[in-house]
Amino acid sequence: MVRVLMLLFYSSLLLGCQKSAQEVLQLTQEASYSASLSQDAKLAIVSTARQGVQVWDLEKNAIRYTWHQGEGKSNVIATALSANSAYAATLTNQSLGLWSLATGKSVGWWSLPASGQTVAVANTGQVLVGLVDGSVLSLAHDRQSLIKFLGHTEKVTSVSVSADGQYALSGGNDAQVILWHAQTGQPIHRWLMKSRVTKVLLNDDASISFASDIMGNASLWHSQSGKLKTQLDIKRRQMTFSAARFIDQDKYLLTGTPSKEVFLWDSKTGKKIARRQVQVTKDNQNRGAVVYSVARQSPSRLVSISSQGLLESWDITH
Predict the structure, then answer these.
(1) 196 CB-near residues (< 8 Å, 6+ apart)
(2) CA gap 95, 129 in Å, rounded
(3) What CA–CA distance (Å, rounded) separates 296 from 85?
(4) How far apart, in Å, are the Cα atoms of 122 and each of 57, 98, 127, 231, 312?
(5) Which of 17, 49, 171, 313 has the greatest count of CB atoms below 10 A from its CB?
(6) pLDDT more than 70, % of the chain
(7) What are phi and psi of 17, to 5 degrees?
(8) pLDDT tens column, 124-182
(9) In contact, 36 and 80? CB cutoff 8 Å
(10) 3-class secondary structure for the chain?
């Protein structure tokens, strides 16, 4: 009995130490399928069940644009924003949409040869689309060029592109992580994870490649040499990442999980610096929350957006 009471006591202490967000803004009360934050956390795009894709101006807390891809119920499953906030990409299983954030107008729309899974967009409007058949489409709308990268043998689960649109990183269910030239499809480096890849990320200049798998393995490599830079010091048996972003000139890695968590890591040592937990809304029967996107709002504040439709921010010093 005493042991049970002690466990309850320590559990309450741990819960009490969990820091709540300083600010919370509910962007939508509907189910959301995807969301992306801009690099400076001034914009957010949210794919909603019935109201299409909403583009939020987070400085004014107001909707700037509403987009619809196809007719009827929204079925946008993945979204992406370029690092310079010039372009947004929206992906359904059947089509890709590219949009100008300056005007809110469509830049182009393309039908996909296989079911779409994941999307990324560069400052130039270069778009990557990972497909269920194991291929990746690399589309340059300004040159009307399209290549199909065939380096994976199973479904592509995550893609990332450098800010200038020259380099691509892709990961898939085949446990491969591949760095390649986005303009030619020529492979540069291949790394093999221990299980299915869930998230890949290039920093803006493509000097660092990051990937994680479903078993809690997460590594950073030097893109030029292909050599290991560091591994994240993950103590759990399993940890899956649903969001990732390099911040503060790549000194830190910010990640989100499908289980309500946000982590800040030291990119050099792989050590965890901070952990935060996102909220669930009181009227939502679903008590889970997928962290869709993470960013740095200011030098001391981190921000996330989750499947609960909540934008949350925390003050963190390190």
Answers:
(1) 157, 172, 173, 175, 213, 214
(2) 10
(3) 15
(4) 20, 11, 7, 26, 26
(5) 171
(6) 90
(7) -80, -15
(8) 999 999 999 999 999 998 878 899 999 999 999 999 999 999 999 999 999 999 999 99
(9) yes
(10) CHHHHHHHHHHHHHHHHCCCCCEEEECCCCCEEEEEECCCCCEEEEEECCCCEEEEECCCCEEEEEECCCCCCCCCCEEEECCCCCEEEEECCCEEEEEECCCCCEEEEEECCCCEEEEEECCCCCEEEEECCCCEEEEECCCCEEEEECCCCCCEEEEEECCCCCEEEEEECCCEEEEEECCCCCEEEEEECCCCEEEEEECCCCCEEEEEECCCCEEEEECCCCCEEEECCCCCCCCCCCEEEEECCCCEEEEECCCCEEEEEECCCCCEEEEEECCCCCCCCCCCCCEEEEEEEECCEEEEEECCCEEEEEECCC
Position 17, amino acid: C
C-alpha span between 233 and 245 (Å, rounded): 17
**Is the pLDDT at 39 greater than 60, yes or no?**
yes
Structure tokens at 141: 């709308």
Whether the Cβ atoms of residue 123 and residue 164 lie closer than 8 Å to each other? yes
The separation between the first and the last C-alpha atoms of the chain, rounded to the nearest angstrom, is 41
The two structure tokens encoding residue 265: 């890591």
Q: How many CA atoms lie within 13 A of 258 on its CB side?
A: 11
| Type of residue at 310 | L
Instruction: Please write the tens of the pLDDT for every residue from 209-229.
Output: 999 999 999 999 999 999 999
Please give the structure tokens belonging to residue 205: 């200049």
Report the C-alpha gap between 297 and 175 in whole angstroms: 33
Give 64-119 pLDDT, tens digit per residue: 999 998 765 668 999 999 999 999 999 999 999 999 999 999 999 999 999 999 99
Non-local (6+) Cβ contacts of 262 within 8 A are: 254, 255, 256, 275, 276, 277, 278, 291, 294, 302, 304, 314
